[in-house]
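Session log. Operator J.P. requested a structure for one protein chain; no other inputs attached. Running the standard single-chain path with token output.
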Amino acid sequence: MNLQQFRYAVEVSRRGLNVSEAAAALHTSQPGVSKQIRALEEELGAEIFVRQGRRLVALTDAGAEVLRTLERILSEIGNLKAIGQEYAGAGHGHLSVAVTHTQARYALPPVVTEFKKRYPGVKLKLLQGNPHQLAKMVVDGEADLAIATEALDEYEELVALPGYQWHHCVVVPQAHELARAAPLTLEAIARFPIVTYDATFAGRSAIDRAFAARGLSPEVALSALDSDVIKSYVALGLGVGIISQRAFRAGKEEGLVAIDSAHLFPVQVTRIAYRRGAYLRSYALEFIGLFAPRFTPADVKALEAGPGQRFEI
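Structure written below.
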């Protein structure tokens, strides 16, 4: 057995049993991947994958157990490398943060600015996607940290720490009749087309539940992945916008006004997550502390309790 075989088997599993995709991701050939996996199975004395002809179609029962063990082995090897790097080159390295557009645009700038002041030798990389994609990036080791409002606390493989609370606000052109509504109600909003987040983003599920609880089914004229797109289409008159209050910059959104709607939609919590069991270098712990100030590096190290652990503000 060797680490190459372990990596090949794990990558094939992560790629939905698509050997071609796994080979491309590993920068090798498809026959080479298949050969190494066969060699691993022969040495184990058990098949990892169910085959139909040349295709892999499922995991065997033994394969599911084997892959869980292989993932732990590869994770610990990654930890060993990180420990060596920590002591060989303190203050230098790489940090990958998977983040939604809204968080990258509106929540992270002060955190990143302060982080780069403290760790100028660390190369910071921001990866973007929807919350479930971000969680998967961390679970698969493609990112060190993930930041999002949705999904992160649903994965047992992750430790998700609350960063900050926020509310939605309603955004309309200055001349819109809702700009003069007092108090603003869900019924009033539902009379107009809605422009808001995609179903997987930024508390969209909470918006939908709030309307449904009042028996309302507003027309969603457009859903988008980020707040800037939503504001642009609201300005064009496409509908009433519902966005994160942090994404509205008073005095800088020409022609638009934000209406407080904290009384209409539940409070949201944006979280920062890392893979359970991962060795976090000192600068990663520092980044977590900058985003979620209630958690010190010592706190984070102590939070390796067990799966399903939840933290609230």
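Operator note: Residues 61-88 form the longest helix (28 residues).
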